[in-house]
Design goal:
Helices cover 53% and strands 5% of the residues. The chain is mainly alpha-helical. The chain has a 3-stranded antiparallel β-sheet with strand order 1-3-2, with helices on one face. The chain starts with a helix and ends with a strand.
Length: 228
């Protein structure tokens, strides 16, 4: 076999080998690309499903909150898994102030306003509730403090389960449900002010009326904004 023929054969062999590699490599690439595409589609479907489920949960949650705020006298017990320490402290303080559901909601908004505005440097519900001489049942050394501080989700105290549901709903409600301005951070009950017409701090604030209809007697609760 002459040199020219040998060289031609070698080149032809190399060409076939190269073509095979390309074809094999091309098939492999197509296969990998197809697998990647399928994986991407599967991931997309899973992501879409997860988003839809989250949306449904969020929607269900908002419906529950809406029901509580629209019908505070007929609230269902809060599922235990939804309860956290902050909700419990809010429930304790509103229950200490009143046993009437609509009044509890209004008091809860006052406390939320304090937390969201960092009133007196307090940015949590526990610290706002335990802020000295702000909520009478929790005054240092007060005889009621131990009782209300010990209330838990499974407490048998009449009406406390409603307080927990109301507290959770107010904490997580859209701000559009706020019944008065975010600067409404004070209230007092005339009927509990024995021998006093009103507290001194009320002179520096403006009395407000809840924007949504509430069946609350003024002698029981008066709300004030812009009290420093």
């Amino acid at each position: 076999m002459n040199k020219k023929h040998t060289t031609g054969l070698l080149l032809f062999t190399l060409l076939l080998t190269f073509i095979g590699v390309v074809v094999i490599g091309g098939d492999g690439m197509v296969e990998r690309a197809s697998a990647t595409a399928v994986a991407s589609v599967d991931a997309g479907v899973e992501s879409e499903t997860t988003t839809e489920e989250s949306s449904e949960v969020a929607e269900s949650e908002q419906h529950m909150i809406q029901d509580v705020l629209q019908n505070p006298r007929r609230v269902k017990p809060l599922p235990p898994e939804k309860l956290d320490s902050e909700t419990l402290w809010l429930a304790r303080v509103i229950y200490s102030e009143t046993k009437r559901p609509e009044e509890m909601e209004l008091v809860a908004w006052v406390v939320r306003n304090r937390v969201e505005t960092g009133y007196r440097g307090k940015s949590s519900y526990q610290s706002a509730v335990l802020d000295p001489y702000q909520f009478s049942a929790f005054n240092p050394g007060g005889r009621k403090r131990a009782h209300y501080s010990s209330l838990t989700h499974d407490s048998k105290a009449r009406g406390f389960a409603s307080a927990v549901s109301i507290a959770y709903s107010v904490r997580h409600a859209d701000s559009n449900y706020r019944p008065f301005s975010i600067n409404t951070r004070h209230f007092y009950s005339e009927q509990s002010m024995v021998g006093v017409r009103h507290p001194a701090w009320a002179n520096g604030g403006r009395k407000v009326t809840p924007q949504r209809p509430f069946d609350v007697e003024e002698r029981r609760f008066r709300f004030f904004e812009n009290v420093s």
